[in-house]
Amino acid sequence: MLPPSADTTSPRARRLLIQGTTEAQLGDYEEAISHFEAALEQVPEAPVLLLALADAHEAQGALSTALFYARRAQTQGSPRPSPYRRLAEMQRAAGDPAAALRTYQQLLDHFPNANDAHRARAAIQADLGRTKGAIQSYEIYLQRTDSPPIDVYRRLLSLYRKTGDKDGVETTLRTLVDRRPTVRSYQRRLGEYYADEGRPRKALALLAPLGRQFPNDFPNDEALRRQVQRLARQTGQSIASPTQRAQSDSTRSQSASPDAPLRRARSMYDAATASSPPDTAQLRAAAGVLRDVLHQSPDTEAALSLQAELYQAWGRPEEAGRAMERLLDLNPRVPGRWVRTAQTYQRAHLYARAAGVAEEGFLLFPGHMPLARTAAFARLRAGDPAKARRHFQDALSVLGDSTGAAAEAVLHAGLGLAKSRLGRPREADDALKNARALAPQHPRVVRLYARSLAHQDDRLDQALDLAEQAVENAPDSPSAHRALGQVQFRRDELEAARRHLRIALDAGGPSATLLERLGDVEAALGNDTAAQTYWQRALDRNPDRSSLREKLAVPANS
Q1: What is the rounded average pLDDT for all residues in the chain?
Q2: Where do the H-state alpha helices sit in 197-315?
Q3: If you average pLDDT over each of 19-23, 105-109, 247-251, 452-456, which comes out highest?
Q4: Percentage with pLDDT > 70 across the chain
Q5: Closest among 300, 311, 306 to 266, alpha carbons compared
Q6: What residues contact residue 155 under an 8 Å CB cut-off, 6+ apart?
Q7: Residue 221 confidence (pLDDT)
Q8: Is the pTM of this model over 0.90?
Q9: Closest CA to 534 of 490, 485, 498
Q10: Which of 392, 485, 386, 484 is nearest to 435 (CA)?
């Protein structure tokens, strides 16, 4: 479902849209549709509402109704490409690829920089047998995209082969080998291509190492061995006999036993992350292989590093952090590794743990500003403003000459928020003025300033102006919505506070602080059951939070 958008100008319509979106996320599409229809009465023909209705009806299987609303959204002249894109997707799902192609062309006519539309068009053209058109669309997409998904090259390879474009086949295979050097099948296919094209030396250079260096990837592949021997005769080069290779492979496997499974795990990881979102089944299989590698060789840095990457891609930052901490145990002399580990725990909303890692790293590298900065914000989010203040002061004291004004401003703003929470408004104002002088419109500075002023009853109007500015500048930022929701809560604007805090929760994930604040809002609205649910979820994430124990009447030793 789509988030609230600027084209729902009515406050009531925005509230209904949020309520409908929440119901849709919970799977109650009938209730969601009723909210969206009520919102549409307030703001007729708003594209975001029409698309929300289209999505809800599609989820119910009512594709013709979904198409009706999607067409209406597309005809409203939205300043964004999303109505065209959703209409085309629904037309394709309804079995009308020709209509989807026309819609994508209209999208590109209105939004020539919508590069993903070229990729979508290419896929439809390929399905319709319009091979040359598909190739042209894919090539335009590649020219305009910095880091295209690997799947585009795979599809292009098939199309080039259909048209007999040898240059295209070679170029694409070489790109696949370069982009995925651990996927040995690409190396083999390029080698076989060179062999078919009468270029035996290039073919031998690619194919000879495969069976010899990667036996687990090509077990008992007699065809590969025969091809290598034939190429060797053509070029006059000597190749080790099978017995010699077996002996060499046995020696190599004894001296480097984790190599082959580690390569296999890397290949599986590369294949899983070639799609967006990643293939979780492939990630799970790769994780299993890595567990076996680490069970046999627990101190294998390459395996731990890959495990951390894998869990990050899987959306499991806590497990990624644990793998990175084991890397720190093996080699603690890399300051950037301490920073990355702490930031990984922050993404998991484990702020006290993140702060502990950053603080330990700062003891080893006392002049490393990013470690002090990371510790400061982690302590701030963990609800420990006294320690946060000290870390912000440490970070500011070790700033280098190359530090930009924006980075310094964010540190002053963070220091101001810490001092506000400690009940020192004058000191907080001094820090915040420094921040605004350095970077007055920086989104994070504005956000932190708003949250600082929210602690002062006589400055809530100014806090509201800043928080609204933060949301206006970054409407998709969960931190901006969280800041606005907190200010609105302090102003007793409870419905608005709940709306923005829920947006922050949906977009940024749960943290103990955010869940507790949502519980506070529900309690103020008289929704005791909802409040207890949020507070319990917050306590589950942070069992040591005394404020939550008091609200839930949970004994400290429970």
Answers
A1: 84
A2: 200-213, 222-235, 242-255, 259-272, 280-296, 301-313
A3: 105-109
A4: 91
A5: 306
A6: 122, 123, 126, 134, 138
A7: 63
A8: no
A9: 498
A10: 392
